[in-house]
UniProtKB/TrEMBL annotation:
All residue ranges annotated as the CBS domain in the record: 141-203
Protein name: CBS domain-containing protein
Natural source organism: Propionigenium maris DSM 9537
Keywords, alphabetical: CBS domain, Repeat
Gene3D superfamilies documented for this protein: CBS-domain, Winged helix-like DNA-binding domain superfamily/Winged helix DNA-binding domain
Amino acid sequence: MYSERQERIVDIVLKRGPITGKEIAEILGVTRGALRTDFSVLTKDKVIASKTKIGYSYLGNGTPTGKKLGRKQVSDYMSMPNILQEETTVYESIVSIFLKDTGSIYVTKNGVLSGVVSRKDLLKHMMGGTDSRNSPIGMIMTRMPNVIFCYRDESIHSAAEKMVEHEIDSLPVVSEIEDGKYKVVGKISKTTITKIFVEEFKG
């Protein structure tokens, strides 16, 4: 389900829309920036829509299954992430990724998400003949801000859209420490989302 604040935003837009993000923020007593994730979730799920110089309007679109998935949050289904430090060697990363049977490793520096390494990245590195026992994964990872991620309170539908759009198998689930810096708190994968879809269609 959506968070309490997101439900309040929908209620405000439904009753007062079209209404600007600034006006919604003033009603809720927070800054416009604090609502960025909430607006992103609700617009991606097509519950509300934003038009320049007009503001947010209520849509409430979607199929029955789409609406159910729109109310399921990432936090309810995320799993434990495979996290390593930038200094970890490629060899150690290969051992970790296969022992934990995962497709990606999330890389951190001082507790902050700094990059991601996939099985494909590790394979390319090995095929290049570079010494895997001395090469740190920080050299081959995809670095921030090019890492695609999601938040705990995003919908499953939103996470699935990101994976399809960027052709990736999983997303790190993050919480924002400060502007532009994120802590990894979980992982959501295509396998997990496929299981959710199967269960929904069974129902």
